[in-house]
Amino acid sequence: MNRTDPPGNRRTAPGREVLISGAGIAGPALAFWLNRRGFAVTVVEKAGAPRHGGYPVDVRGTALEVVRRMGILPRLRDAHIDLRRMTFLDRDGGEVASVDPHALTGGVAGHDLEVRRGDLTAALHAAVRDDVEFLFDDSLETVEHSGDGVDVTFRGGGTRTFGMVVGADGAHSRTRASVFGPKERFHRYLGYRFAGFTLPNTFGLSHETLMWNTPGRAAALYAVGGGDPVHALLVFAHPEPPSEALRSTAAQRELVAGVFAGAGWEVPGMLAALREADDLFFDGVTQIRMPRWSSGRVALVGDAAYAPSFLTGQGSSLALVGAYMLAASLAGRNHDAGFAAYERETRAFVTAHQDRVGVGDSVLFPATARALERRDDLLRRLSAGPSAQERPVHPSLTLPAHVPPG
Description:
There is one protein chain. This protein has 13 helices and 19 strands. It has helices spanning about 25-35, 60-70, 75-80, 100-105, 115-130, 175-180, 250-260, 265-275, 305, 315-330, 335-355, 355-365, 370-385, and strands at about 1-5, 15-20, 40-45, 55-60, 85-90, 95-100, 115, 135, 140-145, 150-155, 160, 165, 185-200, 210-215, 215-225, 230-235, 280-290, 295, 300. It has a 7-stranded mixed sheet with strand order 1-8-3-2-12-19-18. It has a 7-stranded mixed sheet with strand order 6-5-14-15-16-13-17, with helices on both faces. A 3-stranded antiparallel sheet has the order 9-10-11. A hairpin with a 2-residue loop joins β14 and β15. It is globular and about 65 Å long. It starts with a strand and ends in a 23-residue tail after the last helix.
Protein backbone atom coordinates (compact mmCIF):
# COMPACT_ATOMS: atom_id res chain seq x y z
CA MET A 1 0.00 0.00 0.00
CA ASN A 2 1.24 3.47 -0.96
CA ARG A 3 0.05 5.90 1.69
CA THR A 4 -0.10 9.70 1.72
CA ASP A 5 -1.11 11.21 5.05
CA PRO A 6 -2.90 14.51 5.66
CA PRO A 7 -1.83 17.10 8.27
CA GLY A 8 -1.98 15.44 11.68
CA ASN A 9 -3.17 18.28 13.91
CA ARG A 10 -6.75 18.47 12.74
CA ARG A 11 -9.66 17.47 14.98
CA THR A 12 -12.86 16.19 13.46
CA ALA A 13 -16.24 15.67 15.10
CA PRO A 14 -17.40 12.04 15.41
CA GLY A 15 -19.24 10.80 12.34
CA ARG A 16 -17.44 13.23 10.02
CA GLU A 17 -14.72 10.79 8.97
CA VAL A 18 -15.41 9.89 5.34
CA LEU A 19 -13.85 7.16 3.22
CA ILE A 20 -14.02 7.64 -0.55
CA SER A 21 -13.34 4.64 -2.78
CA GLY A 22 -11.83 5.79 -6.07
CA ALA A 23 -9.29 8.48 -7.02
CA GLY A 24 -10.39 9.16 -10.57
CA ILE A 25 -12.51 12.28 -11.09
CA ALA A 26 -15.46 12.17 -8.68
CA GLY A 27 -13.35 10.91 -5.74
CA PRO A 28 -10.73 13.69 -5.52
CA ALA A 29 -13.34 16.34 -6.36
CA LEU A 30 -15.53 15.13 -3.49
CA ALA A 31 -12.50 14.93 -1.18
CA PHE A 32 -11.67 18.56 -2.01
CA TRP A 33 -15.12 19.87 -1.14
CA LEU A 34 -15.63 17.68 1.94
CA ASN A 35 -12.29 18.85 3.29
CA ARG A 36 -13.43 22.46 2.83
CA ARG A 37 -16.56 21.59 4.82
CA GLY A 38 -14.57 20.29 7.78
CA PHE A 39 -14.69 16.53 7.14
CA ALA A 40 -11.69 14.25 7.66
CA VAL A 41 -11.29 12.43 4.35
CA THR A 42 -9.49 9.25 3.30
CA VAL A 43 -9.35 8.22 -0.37
CA VAL A 44 -8.52 4.62 -1.30
CA GLU A 45 -7.51 3.75 -4.87
CA LYS A 46 -6.58 0.35 -6.31
CA ALA A 47 -4.00 1.84 -8.69
CA GLY A 48 -0.53 2.50 -7.36
CA ALA A 49 -0.65 6.22 -8.17
CA PRO A 50 -2.91 8.75 -9.88
CA ARG A 51 -3.64 7.42 -13.35
CA HIS A 52 -2.19 9.17 -16.37
CA GLY A 53 -3.18 9.05 -20.02
CA GLY A 54 -6.60 7.90 -21.09
CA TYR A 55 -9.06 9.29 -23.58
CA PRO A 56 -9.83 13.01 -23.74
CA VAL A 57 -12.81 14.08 -21.64
CA ASP A 58 -15.07 17.12 -21.72
CA VAL A 59 -15.70 19.67 -18.97
CA ARG A 60 -18.79 21.65 -19.88
CA GLY A 61 -21.59 23.75 -18.51
CA THR A 62 -22.06 23.67 -14.75
CA ALA A 63 -18.88 21.60 -14.31
CA LEU A 64 -16.83 24.60 -15.50
CA GLU A 65 -18.06 26.57 -12.52
CA VAL A 66 -17.07 23.69 -10.21
CA VAL A 67 -13.46 23.63 -11.45
CA ARG A 68 -13.34 27.45 -11.35
CA ARG A 69 -14.35 27.38 -7.68
CA MET A 70 -11.68 24.75 -7.06
CA GLY A 71 -9.02 27.07 -8.50
CA ILE A 72 -7.90 24.62 -11.20
CA LEU A 73 -9.55 26.23 -14.23
CA PRO A 74 -6.35 28.01 -15.41
CA ARG A 75 -4.41 24.73 -15.29
CA LEU A 76 -7.11 22.97 -17.29
CA ARG A 77 -7.26 25.80 -19.84
CA ASP A 78 -3.52 25.30 -20.39
CA ALA A 79 -4.19 21.58 -21.00
CA HIS A 80 -7.11 22.20 -23.39
CA ILE A 81 -6.84 20.05 -26.52
CA ASP A 82 -8.81 22.27 -28.90
CA LEU A 83 -10.22 19.66 -31.25
CA ARG A 84 -10.76 21.53 -34.50
CA ARG A 85 -12.46 19.16 -36.90
CA MET A 86 -14.52 15.97 -37.10
CA THR A 87 -14.56 14.30 -40.52
CA PHE A 88 -17.11 11.57 -41.26
CA LEU A 89 -16.37 8.95 -43.89
CA ASP A 90 -18.40 6.43 -45.88
CA ARG A 91 -17.64 2.71 -46.21
CA ASP A 92 -14.99 3.36 -48.88
CA GLY A 93 -13.27 6.13 -46.92
CA GLY A 94 -14.77 8.96 -48.94
CA GLU A 95 -15.66 12.15 -47.07
CA VAL A 96 -19.31 12.63 -46.14
CA ALA A 97 -18.86 15.86 -44.20
CA SER A 98 -16.35 17.74 -42.08
CA VAL A 99 -17.86 19.66 -39.17
CA ASP A 100 -16.91 21.83 -36.23
CA PRO A 101 -17.02 19.51 -33.17
CA HIS A 102 -19.01 22.10 -31.20
CA ALA A 103 -21.84 21.80 -33.71
CA LEU A 104 -22.29 18.18 -32.58
CA THR A 105 -21.56 18.47 -28.87
CA GLY A 106 -23.31 21.74 -28.11
CA GLY A 107 -20.04 23.02 -26.68
CA VAL A 108 -18.96 26.65 -26.80
CA ALA A 109 -15.66 27.40 -28.53
CA GLY A 110 -13.24 29.22 -26.23
CA HIS A 111 -15.32 28.34 -23.18
CA ASP A 112 -15.85 24.59 -22.76
CA LEU A 113 -12.86 22.35 -22.18
CA GLU A 114 -11.57 19.08 -23.58
CA VAL A 115 -8.53 17.67 -21.78
CA ARG A 116 -6.76 14.35 -21.44
CA ARG A 117 -8.35 12.40 -18.62
CA GLY A 118 -4.93 12.11 -16.96
CA ASP A 119 -4.52 15.90 -17.00
CA LEU A 120 -7.86 16.31 -15.22
CA THR A 121 -7.14 13.67 -12.58
CA ALA A 122 -3.66 15.15 -11.99
CA ALA A 123 -5.14 18.61 -11.44
CA LEU A 124 -7.76 17.26 -9.03
CA HIS A 125 -5.19 15.24 -7.06
CA ALA A 126 -2.80 18.19 -6.82
CA ALA A 127 -5.61 20.38 -5.46
CA VAL A 128 -6.29 18.08 -2.49
CA ARG A 129 -3.29 15.79 -1.93
CA ASP A 130 -1.88 17.86 0.95
CA ASP A 131 -5.18 17.98 2.82
CA VAL A 132 -6.53 14.42 2.85
CA GLU A 133 -5.20 10.90 3.28
CA PHE A 134 -4.63 8.84 0.11
CA LEU A 135 -4.24 5.06 0.20
CA PHE A 136 -2.97 3.89 -3.18
CA ASP A 137 -2.54 0.28 -4.28
CA ASP A 138 -5.45 -0.81 -2.08
CA SER A 139 -9.21 -1.25 -2.26
CA LEU A 140 -12.27 -2.21 -0.24
CA GLU A 141 -12.80 -5.87 0.63
CA THR A 142 -15.92 -5.58 2.79
CA VAL A 143 -18.24 -2.74 3.82
CA GLU A 144 -20.59 -3.30 6.78
CA HIS A 145 -22.78 -0.98 8.82
CA SER A 146 -22.23 -1.25 12.56
CA GLY A 147 -23.84 1.07 15.07
CA ASP A 148 -22.88 4.67 14.37
CA GLY A 149 -20.40 3.94 11.60
CA VAL A 150 -19.28 1.76 8.73
CA ASP A 151 -16.66 -0.95 9.25
CA VAL A 152 -14.37 -1.35 6.26
CA THR A 153 -11.90 -4.14 5.60
CA PHE A 154 -9.17 -3.34 3.09
CA ARG A 155 -7.76 -5.83 0.63
CA GLY A 156 -4.28 -4.89 1.75
CA GLY A 157 -5.16 -5.81 5.34
CA GLY A 158 -6.59 -3.95 8.29
CA THR A 159 -10.01 -2.70 9.31
CA ARG A 160 -11.15 0.85 10.02
CA THR A 161 -14.42 2.52 10.94
CA PHE A 162 -15.75 5.65 9.21
CA GLY A 163 -18.78 7.82 9.72
CA MET A 164 -19.62 7.55 6.02
CA VAL A 165 -18.37 5.71 2.93
CA VAL A 166 -18.77 7.01 -0.62
CA GLY A 167 -18.25 4.87 -3.71
CA ALA A 168 -16.62 6.88 -6.50
CA ASP A 169 -15.20 3.79 -8.17
CA GLY A 170 -16.77 3.87 -11.61
CA ALA A 171 -19.48 2.10 -13.55
CA HIS A 172 -18.24 -1.31 -12.35
CA SER A 173 -18.18 -0.12 -8.72
CA ARG A 174 -17.25 -2.69 -6.07
CA THR A 175 -18.77 -0.41 -3.44
CA ARG A 176 -22.11 -0.51 -5.23
CA ALA A 177 -21.97 -4.30 -5.62
CA SER A 178 -21.12 -4.77 -1.94
CA VAL A 179 -23.87 -2.54 -0.56
CA PHE A 180 -26.59 -2.27 -3.22
CA GLY A 181 -26.39 -5.60 -5.02
CA PRO A 182 -25.21 -7.03 -8.36
CA LYS A 183 -24.57 -4.72 -11.30
CA GLU A 184 -27.31 -6.33 -13.41
CA ARG A 185 -29.89 -4.47 -11.31
CA PHE A 186 -28.58 -1.09 -12.37
CA HIS A 187 -26.79 -1.48 -15.72
CA ARG A 188 -28.83 -0.32 -18.72
CA TYR A 189 -27.19 -1.76 -21.82
CA LEU A 190 -27.46 0.58 -24.83
CA GLY A 191 -26.87 -1.92 -27.62
CA TYR A 192 -23.21 -1.36 -28.44
CA ARG A 193 -19.84 -2.85 -27.59
CA PHE A 194 -16.54 -1.09 -28.11
CA ALA A 195 -12.78 -1.56 -28.08
CA GLY A 196 -10.43 1.34 -27.39
CA PHE A 197 -6.64 1.43 -27.70
CA THR A 198 -3.81 3.63 -28.99
CA LEU A 199 -1.54 3.30 -32.00
CA PRO A 200 1.25 5.39 -33.54
CA ASN A 201 0.16 8.48 -35.44
CA THR A 202 1.26 7.49 -38.93
CA PHE A 203 -1.72 9.29 -40.45
CA GLY A 204 -0.52 12.90 -40.17
CA LEU A 205 -3.51 13.79 -37.97
CA SER A 206 -3.56 16.61 -35.43
CA HIS A 207 -6.40 17.96 -33.25
CA GLU A 208 -9.03 16.12 -35.24
CA THR A 209 -11.19 13.02 -35.42
CA LEU A 210 -11.91 10.76 -38.39
CA MET A 211 -15.07 8.64 -38.10
CA TRP A 212 -15.84 5.78 -40.51
CA ASN A 213 -19.31 4.24 -40.51
CA THR A 214 -21.31 1.44 -42.00
CA PRO A 215 -24.66 0.40 -40.49
CA GLY A 216 -23.97 -0.92 -36.99
CA ARG A 217 -20.18 -0.46 -37.20
CA ALA A 218 -17.92 2.52 -36.59
CA ALA A 219 -14.17 3.09 -36.50
CA ALA A 220 -12.65 6.32 -35.21
CA LEU A 221 -9.18 7.81 -35.05
CA TYR A 222 -8.80 10.65 -32.56
CA ALA A 223 -5.59 12.70 -32.74
CA VAL A 224 -4.82 14.96 -29.79
CA GLY A 225 -1.62 16.37 -31.30
CA GLY A 226 0.64 15.57 -34.21
CA GLY A 227 3.31 13.93 -32.06
CA ASP A 228 1.05 11.97 -29.73
CA PRO A 229 -0.34 8.47 -30.26
CA VAL A 230 -3.74 8.28 -31.91
CA HIS A 231 -6.71 7.02 -29.90
CA ALA A 232 -8.53 4.32 -31.83
CA LEU A 233 -12.11 3.24 -31.21
CA LEU A 234 -14.00 0.34 -32.80
CA VAL A 235 -17.72 0.28 -31.98
CA PHE A 236 -20.37 -2.18 -33.12
CA ALA A 237 -24.03 -2.85 -32.46
CA HIS A 238 -24.84 -6.05 -30.57
CA PRO A 239 -28.11 -7.09 -28.90
CA GLU A 240 -26.46 -8.49 -25.76
CA PRO A 241 -23.93 -6.98 -23.31
CA PRO A 242 -20.51 -8.66 -23.08
CA SER A 243 -20.58 -11.99 -21.25
CA GLU A 244 -18.12 -13.37 -18.73
CA ALA A 245 -16.56 -15.36 -21.58
CA LEU A 246 -15.28 -12.07 -23.01
CA ARG A 247 -13.17 -11.18 -19.99
CA SER A 248 -9.98 -12.40 -21.71
CA THR A 249 -8.28 -9.98 -24.09
CA ALA A 250 -7.75 -12.83 -26.58
CA ALA A 251 -11.50 -13.40 -26.81
CA GLN A 252 -12.13 -9.66 -27.12
CA ARG A 253 -9.62 -9.31 -29.97
CA GLU A 254 -11.08 -12.30 -31.78
CA LEU A 255 -14.63 -10.95 -31.52
CA VAL A 256 -13.74 -7.46 -32.76
CA ALA A 257 -11.64 -8.84 -35.63
CA GLY A 258 -14.57 -10.98 -36.73
CA VAL A 259 -17.07 -8.13 -36.62
CA PHE A 260 -14.83 -5.84 -38.68
CA ALA A 261 -13.52 -8.47 -41.12
CA GLY A 262 -13.65 -7.16 -44.67
CA ALA A 263 -14.07 -3.52 -43.61
CA GLY A 264 -12.40 -0.85 -45.71
CA TRP A 265 -10.60 2.44 -45.08
CA GLU A 266 -7.92 2.16 -42.31
CA VAL A 267 -9.77 -0.58 -40.42
CA PRO A 268 -7.42 -3.45 -41.42
CA GLY A 269 -4.47 -1.53 -40.01
CA MET A 270 -6.43 -0.74 -36.86
CA LEU A 271 -7.18 -4.45 -36.40
CA ALA A 272 -3.48 -5.24 -36.81
CA ALA A 273 -2.66 -2.66 -34.12
CA LEU A 274 -5.41 -4.07 -31.92
CA ARG A 275 -3.71 -7.48 -31.90
CA GLU A 276 -0.54 -5.90 -30.45
CA ALA A 277 -2.08 -3.22 -28.21
CA ASP A 278 -1.12 -3.38 -24.53
CA ASP A 279 -3.74 -0.80 -23.50
CA LEU A 280 -6.88 -2.42 -24.90
CA PHE A 281 -10.11 -1.48 -23.12
CA PHE A 282 -13.20 -3.46 -24.09
CA ASP A 283 -16.68 -3.01 -22.67
CA GLY A 284 -20.35 -2.61 -23.41
CA VAL A 285 -21.89 0.84 -23.75
CA THR A 286 -24.05 1.16 -20.64
CA GLN A 287 -25.66 3.58 -18.26
CA ILE A 288 -26.11 3.19 -14.52
CA ARG A 289 -29.68 3.91 -13.40
CA MET A 290 -30.46 3.55 -9.70
CA PRO A 291 -33.64 4.27 -7.73
CA ARG A 292 -31.50 5.50 -4.81
CA TRP A 293 -27.90 6.66 -4.55
CA SER A 294 -27.50 5.89 -0.85
CA SER A 295 -28.14 3.18 1.71
CA GLY A 296 -27.60 3.96 5.37
CA ARG A 297 -24.20 5.63 5.72
CA VAL A 298 -23.01 4.64 2.22
CA ALA A 299 -23.55 6.77 -0.88
CA LEU A 300 -22.41 6.72 -4.51
CA VAL A 301 -21.23 9.54 -6.76
CA GLY A 302 -20.22 9.88 -10.42
CA ASP A 303 -20.28 6.86 -12.71
CA ALA A 304 -20.81 4.51 -9.76
CA ALA A 305 -24.26 6.08 -9.26
CA TYR A 306 -25.25 7.51 -12.64
CA ALA A 307 -22.83 6.79 -15.48
CA PRO A 308 -24.42 8.43 -18.54
CA SER A 309 -22.26 6.45 -21.06
CA PHE A 310 -19.66 7.99 -23.33
CA LEU A 311 -22.37 8.56 -25.94
CA THR A 312 -23.42 11.67 -23.99
CA GLY A 313 -19.92 13.08 -23.46
CA GLN A 314 -21.03 14.12 -19.98
CA GLY A 315 -19.51 11.54 -17.60
CA SER A 316 -16.71 13.75 -16.27
CA SER A 317 -18.93 16.80 -15.95
CA LEU A 318 -21.60 14.86 -14.05
CA ALA A 319 -18.90 13.48 -11.73
CA LEU A 320 -17.61 16.98 -10.93
CA VAL A 321 -21.06 18.44 -10.36
CA GLY A 322 -22.27 15.42 -8.38
CA ALA A 323 -19.24 15.60 -6.08
CA TYR A 324 -19.86 19.30 -5.42
CA MET A 325 -23.55 18.75 -4.73
CA LEU A 326 -22.93 15.83 -2.37
CA ALA A 327 -20.45 17.80 -0.28
CA ALA A 328 -22.73 20.85 -0.19
CA SER A 329 -25.70 18.68 0.82
CA LEU A 330 -23.79 17.19 3.76
CA ALA A 331 -22.79 20.59 5.14
CA GLY A 332 -24.65 21.09 8.42
CA ARG A 333 -26.63 17.85 8.02
CA ASN A 334 -26.28 14.27 9.21
CA HIS A 335 -25.86 11.52 6.67
CA ASP A 336 -29.59 10.78 6.33
CA ALA A 337 -30.60 14.37 5.64
CA GLY A 338 -27.48 15.09 3.58
CA PHE A 339 -27.89 12.11 1.27
CA ALA A 340 -31.60 12.90 0.83
CA ALA A 341 -30.78 16.51 -0.11
CA TYR A 342 -28.09 15.31 -2.55
CA GLU A 343 -30.63 13.21 -4.46
CA ARG A 344 -33.38 15.81 -4.26
CA GLU A 345 -31.22 18.61 -5.66
CA THR A 346 -29.21 16.62 -8.21
CA ARG A 347 -31.33 13.83 -9.66
CA ALA A 348 -33.29 15.89 -12.21
CA PHE A 349 -30.03 17.33 -13.58
CA VAL A 350 -28.49 13.86 -13.87
CA THR A 351 -31.57 12.34 -15.49
CA ALA A 352 -31.79 15.11 -18.07
CA HIS A 353 -28.22 14.34 -19.17
CA GLN A 354 -28.76 10.58 -19.20
CA ASP A 355 -31.87 10.99 -21.32
CA ARG A 356 -29.78 12.68 -24.02
CA VAL A 357 -28.19 9.36 -24.94
CA GLY A 358 -30.31 9.07 -28.09
CA VAL A 359 -28.81 12.31 -29.38
CA GLY A 360 -25.27 10.96 -29.27
CA ASP A 361 -25.69 7.48 -30.70
CA SER A 362 -27.85 8.58 -33.65
CA VAL A 363 -25.01 10.78 -34.89
CA LEU A 364 -21.96 8.73 -34.04
CA PHE A 365 -23.12 5.13 -34.43
CA PRO A 366 -26.20 4.71 -36.64
CA ALA A 367 -27.30 1.08 -36.43
CA THR A 368 -29.30 0.84 -39.68
CA ALA A 369 -28.85 1.95 -43.27
CA ARG A 370 -31.80 4.35 -42.96
CA ALA A 371 -30.39 5.86 -39.73
CA LEU A 372 -27.01 6.27 -41.40
CA GLU A 373 -28.60 8.04 -44.37
CA ARG A 374 -30.44 10.45 -42.06
CA ARG A 375 -27.26 11.05 -40.08
CA ASP A 376 -25.28 11.88 -43.22
CA ASP A 377 -27.95 14.35 -44.34
CA LEU A 378 -27.75 16.04 -40.93
CA LEU A 379 -23.95 16.25 -41.12
CA ARG A 380 -24.07 17.90 -44.53
CA ARG A 381 -26.38 20.56 -43.12
CA LEU A 382 -24.18 21.04 -40.07
CA SER A 383 -21.10 21.47 -42.24
CA ALA A 384 -22.79 24.58 -43.67
CA GLY A 385 -23.53 25.85 -40.14
CA PRO A 386 -26.02 24.43 -37.61
CA SER A 387 -29.43 25.98 -37.16
CA ALA A 388 -30.64 26.90 -33.69
CA GLN A 389 -32.91 23.84 -33.73
CA GLU A 390 -30.08 21.44 -34.61
CA ARG A 391 -27.56 22.69 -32.04
CA PRO A 392 -27.67 20.60 -28.81
CA VAL A 393 -28.54 22.40 -25.58
CA HIS A 394 -27.23 20.96 -22.31
CA PRO A 395 -29.18 21.02 -19.03
CA SER A 396 -27.73 23.28 -16.33
CA LEU A 397 -27.84 23.40 -12.54
CA THR A 398 -27.48 26.34 -10.16
CA LEU A 399 -24.77 25.48 -7.64
CA PRO A 400 -25.25 26.36 -3.96
CA ALA A 401 -22.78 28.69 -2.25
CA HIS A 402 -19.30 27.32 -1.84
CA VAL A 403 -16.63 27.51 0.82
CA PRO A 404 -13.62 29.46 -0.48
CA PRO A 405 -10.28 27.63 -0.24
CA GLY A 406 -8.41 28.63 2.85
